[in-house]
Design goal:
The complex is a heterodimer of chains A (about 100) and B (about 240).
Chain A (H helix, E strand, L loop, with lengths): L1 H25 L4 H19 L11 H16 L4 H17 L1
Helix pairs in contact in A: 3-4
Chain B lengths: L12 H32 L4 H10 L3 H12 L4 H12 L1 H12 L5 H9 L3 H8 L10 H26 L5 H7 L2 H16 L1 H17 L5 H19 L6
Helix pairs in contact in B: 1-3, 1-8, 2-8, 3-4, 5-7, 10-11, 11-12
The chains are: A mainly alpha (about 100), B mainly alpha (about 240).
Membrane topology (chain B): Multi-pass membrane protein
InterPro entries (chain B): Brnchd-chn_aa_trnsp_permease
Subcellular location (chain B): Cell membrane
């Protein structure tokens, strides 16, 4: 039963992932659609960041938010992405332990 | 394959693989603690080490695996778990369509495995390295990037199931911000270059936030991404990659 659930979950996850490989192989998109697809990564990043970041510590949404603000500042200063990530982790760690 | 051989460029297979692994390290940093936490939770939910590792091997979608393990623990029916997984992971269809469109001209035998390696994180990182699609041996860059992320996830979840909570709770909770920080670290440099990218992202955030009040989280992210992307049709210049 457990394996059936896992295989079912795998199929409904894999099919939406690989079907587009066949679509772009067969169909040429109009210009507006290419632009739309080029904008998708930026839109996806926005939707993935907010409001999810508020749930880093679900009972204290400001902690995730502050971690995010530190990440924005560090990234804006041009720091390497690993340092941005470590800076945000350190901020949340300090806020939750203090 | 339509890769061109350009004299003197150092983009050999080996250098592209090295670049791919280096680029994948922030994902690894974010995945390991979450994968370990998943392994711990799934073990507590009653999955065996083999089952919880196979879920990472086959499903490879963090949020859905947490949800799935949680639902298994509650004794939810198989159909309900599978439908909820579909809804939560449908955003990958939109992401894959975007990434595969960038890989036009690359052989299907590369595109299909690369598409299976797409997650929120590998998609975001790979898309912001879109220039590699046109480089010599660029497919090796993407393959190495995706394998780095995939192996971190699979190994991390197995470790979590085997060893249990090896990371102290305050630290693992703090590391929950890692992937959000990575998304921010990817977005901010693009916004610095082109403010309009920030507009697309902020509209997607707001739409996601509004819809998340009414529909399942999975659909809210899809709607936010699709509508945010539509804004791009009006604000992006021609051939802006």
């Amino acid at each position: 039963m457990m394996l059936l659930i896992i295989v079912g979950m795998a199929l409904v996850t894999m099919i939406p992932r690989f079907v587009p490989a066949y679509i772009v192989d067969k169909v040429n998109f109009p210009n507006w659609m290419n632009k739309w697809l080029q904008a998708i990564p930026y839109a996806a990043l926005g939707a993935l960041i907010f409001p999810g970041i508020l749930t880093v510590k679900p009972d204290q949404p400001h902690i995730g938010l502050l971690g995010g603000i530190v990440a924005i500042l560090l990234a804006f200063l041009g720091l390497n992405i690993i340092l941005v990530v470590i800076g945000a982790i350190a901020t949340v760690f300090l806020l939750t332990t203090l | 394959m339509t890769t061109k051989v350009i004299e003197g460029t150092p983009s050999t297979k080996v250098t592209q693989i090295q670049r791919g692994i280096t680029t994948g390290i922030p994902i690894m940093l974010g995945y390991l603690p979450i994968a370990i936490a998943y392994g711990v939770l799934a073990k507590q939910a009653g999955l065996s080490i083999f089952e919880l590792t196979m879920m990472s091997v086959l499903v490879y979608a963090g949020a859905a695996q947490f949800m799935g393990a949680g639902m298994i623990a509650l004794g939810t029916g198989a159909i309900e778990i599978i439908v909820a997984t579909f809804v939560l992971n449908f955003r990958h269809f939109v992401m894959s369509l975007s990434f595969m469109n960038r890989l036009r001209g690359i052989d299907l035998k590369w595109k299909v495995p690369l598409s299976l390696g797409l997650t929120d994180e590998s998609f975001s990182v790979a898309s912001l390295h879109g220039d590699k699609a046109k480089q010599e041996n660029g497919t090796y860059f993407y393959a190495a990037l995706m394998l780095t992320a995939y192996l971190s996830w699979v190994i991390g979840s197995c470790v979590g199931g085997l060893l249990g909570d090896i990371i102290p709770e305050t630290l693992s909770q703090s590391m929950g911000v890692a992937l959000y920080a990575m998304f921010i670290g990817l977005l901010v440099p693009s916004v610095k270059k082109e403010v309009r990218m920030g507009l697309i992202a902020i509209i997607a955030m707001l739409i996601n936030y509004i819809f998340s009040q009414f529909v399942a989280q999975g659909w809210a992210i899809v709607i936010g991404t699709v509508i945010g992307g539509l804004v791009g049709i009006y604000v992006l210049k021609e051939e802006k990659v």
